[in-house]
Design a protein that fits this description.
Strand content: 25-35%
Structural class: alpha+beta
Mean pLDDT: 86
Largest sheet: 11 strands, mixed
Helix content: 25-40%
Distance between the termini: 66 Å
Length: 529
C-alpha cells in the first residue's frame, strides 16, 4: 500500500523538482515548507526564506529556488499569512470547480465588459486569488477588488453564513439545512431567483488512465467500484489489476453530486478510496496511475480517458453539451452563485448580473464549461431516439402514437431549451425561467415564417392516454407563458403545440429523479423553406 501511495503523489515537472524533493531534510524543521501545485506537477520541500514579488523563495539541497505563487500553494508553519479581507470589496468563497475553473476567465471577461484592466495575484494562501480592476483600460479609477477563495461548496455557504463572503460559489444546489441556517440568520430565501443564480452547466466525467482498455461502464458497475464490491479491473472486463479508487473530500460539492447520482441513498464509498484535494490533482493522479479511476468536472480531464456510461435501462450517456443543457446526462450538474439578501454591495450585484448574462457565455465556454446558451440539433432517422420509435414490441395503439411522433419529429430540429415543472405545479422551475428568457432572445433572431413546436412528455406513471392529455396541457402552458413573456417580440413566428405522453423517455422511469427528467416540454423548430 505504501508504494501505491508514493506512486500517486510522485508527479514532478522536471528532474530538478524530483532531485529537490529527494534531497530535502527527512525531519521537519521549524522553517521547512512544502510548495505544491494544484495539478500535482510541483512538489518541493525546503526552508522558507521570503515571499517577494509574488514569489516564494526556499532553500534546498540544490540551492535557493524562486517559485511563482501563481503555480503553487505553501504548506507549513513558516508560510506567510496574507491579510486580504480588508483589500477586497467582494469576497467569493466556495467550490474549487467554480473558483479555479471559471472565475479566472470570468474576471477577465468582466473587466473587458467594464472596459477595465484586471490584475490577478495568486496569494498562495490555500487557493486565494485577488483580482484588482482599474477602469478606462487601467488608466482610470479602481472599479473593485475581488477576493476568490477556492476550497469546497460547503465552505462557501459557511462563509456566507459568517458574513466573511458576499458570494458563495457552489458545484451543487444549496442543502436544506444550509438554506434554513442562512434564512434564520437574516440572509433571506436562498432559493429565490434573486439569490440563487445558475452560472453554468458541468458534466462530471469518470476518468481512467489513457492506457486502460475499458471504454464503457454501467452505472451499476461504477457504483460497485466505489462501494468496494468490485476491486479488480477484470471484474468489469479489464485486465487483472487492482483498482485504485480516487474520490474527493466529503465536503466537496463534486463528491456530493457523484454520491447522489451513482451510489444513491444509504450506500457509502469504500474506505479504501484515496481522497484527492481538487479536480486538477484528481486528473494528474489518474494520469500517473494506470489502474486508477476518478471523477472530475468536464473542464478538468487534462488528457485522462473519459468513460461512456450506460444507465439501468441500457441507454448510452455521453457527457456532451447538448445532453447537459437538456439535463439528460445523469452526471450533469449546475454551477451556482449565491448571495445574501441583506448585503447591499453594488460591486457583487453587478458582477453576478454579468456572470449569468448572455455576455458571459463565451467566457464560460472558453473556460471549458457549458454555458446556458441555446444549442440546435437535427433530429434524423439515425438518431437513437428515432430508432427507439420503431420498436416492434409494442401494441398497435402505442405503436401508432410512436410513428406519429417520428413522422413529425424528423421535420424539425430540436433546441436545447427544455422546460420542467415543480412537482404538482404549473409553475416553471428556476431553470425554466432562465430558458424562457434565453429562448425569447434566440427566437427573436429567427426569420419570419419560422415554425416552433412546443412538445410535451410525461413519465410512465398513470394511464397512457391520460399521460398524453397531460403532456399536451403542459405544452400549451409553456406556449402561453412564452407568449406572455415575449409579447410582440415573436411576431412572424408560428408557435404550435403537441404532446406524446410517456413515449420516448429521456432516461429510465425507476426513481423519482429520473421521472422528473422525463416530465418535460421540448422545443422543436423548423426554418422557412
Amino acid at each position: 500500500m505504501a508504494s501505491k501511495v508514493f506512486s500517486m503523489k510522485r508527479n514532478f515537472v522536471s528532474a530538478i523538482a524530483l532531485a529537490t524533493a529527494m534531497l530535502a531534510p527527512a525531519s521537519a524543521m521549524a522553517e521547512e515548507v512544502t510548495l505544491r501545485s494544484a495539478d500535482g506537477t510541483v512538489n518541493l520541500v525546503g526552508d522558507f526564506i521570503e515571499f517577494t514579488d509574488n514569489n516564494y523563495v526556499i532553500r534546498t539541497g540544490l540551492g535557493d529556488l524562486r517559485i511563482s505563487a501563481s503555480r503553487v500553494r505553501c504548506e507549513g508553519a513558516a508560510c506567510p499569512s496574507f491579510e486580504t479581507a480588508a483589500e477586497a470589496d467582494v469576497t467569493l468563497s466556495g467550490s474549487d470547480t467554480v473558483g479555479l475553473g471559471v472565475m479566472p476567465l470570468l474576471m477577465s471577461g468582466y473587466a473587458a465588459y467594464l472596459n477595465a484592466e484586471v490584475t490577478t495575484t495568486e496569494l498562495g494562501a490555500g487557493g486565494e486569488v485577488l483580482a484588482e480592476m482599474i477602469g478606462d483600460e487601467g488608466f482610470g479609477d479602481p472599479v473593485g477588488n475581488f477576493l476568490i477563495r477556492s476550497t469546497g461548496s460547503s465552505d462557501g455557504f459557511a462563509n456566507l453564513l459568517g458574513k466573511s463572503a458576499q458570494v458563495a460559489m457552489s458545484s451543487r444546489r444549496i442543502r436544506v439545512e444550509e438554506a434554513r441556517a442562512l434564512r434564520d440568520a437574516g440572509a433571506g430565501n436562498m432559493v429565490s431567483p434573486d439569490q440563487e443564480h445558475i452560472l453554468a452547466i458541468d458534466s462530471l466525467v469518470v476518468i481512467t488512465h489513457p492506457s486502460n482498455p475499458i471504454d464503457t461502464l454501467s452505472v451499476q458497475q461504477l457504483a460497485g467500484i466505489y462501494s468496494g464490491a468490485i476491486t479488480n479491473w477484470s471484474e468489469v472486463g479489464g485486465e487483472n489489476a487492482p483498482i485504485t479508487v480516487l474520490t474527493r473530500d466529503e465536503t466537496s460539492g463534486t463528491r456530493g453530486v457523484f454520491d447522489e447520482r451513482v451510489l444513491g441513498e444509504g450506500v457509502s464509498q469504500t474506505g479504501q478510496a484515496f481522497t484527492i484535494s481538487d479536480n486538477n490533482a484528481m486528473a494528474a493522479t489518474v494520469n500517473d496511475d494506470p489502474n486508477a479511476i476518478g471523477y472530475v468536472g468536464y473542464a478538468f480531464q487534462r488528457g485522462a480517458k473519459p468513460l461512456t456510461l450506460i444507465n439501468e435501462c441500457g441507454q448510452t450517456m455521453v457527457p456532451d453539451a447538448f445532453s447537459a443543457r437538456t439535463e439528460e446526462y445523469a452526471l450533469q450538474r449546475f454551477l451556482y452563485l449565491y448571495n445574501r439578501a441583506d448585503t447591499n454591495i453594488s460591486e457583487s450585484e453587478n458582477f453576478v448580473d454579468y456572470a449569468v448574462s448572455n455576455a458571459a457565455d463565451e467566457v464560460i465556454a472558453k473556460a471549458g464549461f457549458i454555458d446556458l446558451g441555446i444549442d440546435r440539433r437535427a433530429q434524423t432517422m439515425d438518431d437513437p431516439r428515432a430508432q427507439s420509435l420503431l420498436d416492434p414490441n409494442v401494441d398497435a395503439f402505442e405503436g401508432g402514437v410512436m410513428r406519429e411522433m417520428l413522422a413529425q419529429m424528423v421535420n424539425y430540429d430540436r433546441l436545447s431549451s427544455t422546460f420542467r415543472f415543480r412537482t404538482g405545479s404549473q409553475n416553471l422551475d428556476q431553470r425554466g425561467l432562465l430558458n424562457l428568457e434565453r429562448l425569447t432572445d434566440y427566437l427573436e433572431t429567427q426569420p419570419e415564417g419560422t415554425e416552433v413546436l412546443i412538445v410535451g412528455f410525461t413519465d410512465d406513471v398513470g394511464a397512457f392516454e391520460s399521460n398524453r392529455e397531460l403532456s399536451v396541457r403542459r405544452a400549451e402552458s409553456v406556449r402561453a407563458t412564452l407568449r406572455d413573456f415575449a409579447g410582440d417580440r415573436l411576431n412572424g413566428i408560428t408557435v404550435a403545440t403537441a404532446g406524446y405522453g410517456e413515449i420516448a423517455p429521456a432516461t429510465c422511469n425507476i426513481t423519482e429523479g429520473q421521472r422528473s427528467i422525463n416530465r418535460r416540454v421540448e422545443v422543436w423548430i423548423q426554418s422557412p423553406a
